[in-house]
Amino acid sequence: MGVCNTLTSEIRRALVVRGGWDGHQPVTISDSFVPFLKEQGFTVETSEDLAVYDDAERLAATDLVVQCWTMGTITPQQRDNLAAAVRGGTGLAGWHGGIVDSFHDHGYHLLTGGKFVTHPPGYLDHTYQLSPEHADHPIIADLDDFAIHSEQYWVLTDARIDVLATTTFPADDLHDRPAAMPAVWTRTHGAGRVFVSTIGHKPDDFDVPQVRTLTERGLLWASR
């Protein structure tokens, strides 16, 4: 299972914004993708301060923002600068709480297309089903459904996303039927692309080949 893009001589700029709650190991996990991005022709900068979102010109000149920030506070200006950059063509991508549990801000949620609500206690075995209607999408093409032992996210999403994978919550004492929950999706925002995966609570989640591959492909798909 390889990535969807081949090595390119074109130099692109990636900005990795990481921090917030340490339980998601934002530095460790994001660092694991830096060599891949460099191999794909990106120059990679990292920031552990949300003040980087105050620099609208820097964001507009960036081809890909990889966000790995959980439970932080973004200012309206920072949010608007990020949204404007994406609208102009900057890609935005991330995984797990680093993108769907980043900020309690409605404008930010409208940019990403979804927000974290809850997850069952602890880690559990669960599966992810790839969407047949998007089987030829470059992020999931030629991949198979897969299982993982980790957190399973319950999220709220808007209608204007393309769902590439779902995970199913079973019926329980309070709910009379199972629910297929969006888990990996894409969307456009103006000229920009957004990639979101709810998978990736801990580093070894990315040892599952499908998780690593779809995340790498998602970063490339989102980039300008």
TrEMBL record:
The residue ranges of the ThuA-like domain are 13-222
Determine the domain of life of the protein's source: Bacteria
Q: Which InterPro entries match?
A: Class_I_gatase-like, ThuA-like
* Pfam families listed in its UniProt record: ThuA (PF06283)
What sections of the protein cross the membrane? none
PANTHER family for this protein = GALACTOSE-BINDING DOMAIN-LIKE SUPERFAMILY PROTEIN (PTHR40469:SF2), SECRETED GLYCOSYL HYDROLASE (PTHR40469)
This chain's protein is named: ThuA domain-containing protein
Q: What organism is recorded for this protein? A: Streptomyces gottesmaniae
Q: Organism classification, top ranks?
A: Bacteria, Bacillati, Actinomycetota, Actinomycetes, Kitasatosporales
